[in-house]
Design a protein that fits this description.
The chain is mainly beta. The chain has one domain. Helix content is 12%, strand content 52%. The longest helix is centred in the middle third of the chain and has 8 residues.
């Protein structure tokens, strides 16, 4: 299973009300007891959106295997 989750420090946290933003603990809790985490990366950086606008990115990338 692959997943990408938005973190609480993302600049969209107060703008995109329809989106879900999670803490590191909340993301890891989604996988506990049922998945073995193969890889987990937290990324926080300045960058661009697909529309060319600047933003602060805070995302978690996870690769996990069902146990």
């Amino acid at each position: 299973m692959l997943g990408i989750f938005f973190g609480l420090n993302d600049s969209w946290v107060n703008i995109k009300k329809q989106m879900v933003f999670l803490s590191k603990k909340q993301v890891l809790d989604l996988f506990k007891d049922s998945f073995e985490i193969i890889e987990f990366n937290e990324i926080e950086k300045e960058g661009m959106t697909g529309l060319g606008k600047r933003k602060h990115w805070h995302i978690y990338n996870i690769i996990a295997k069902k146990i």
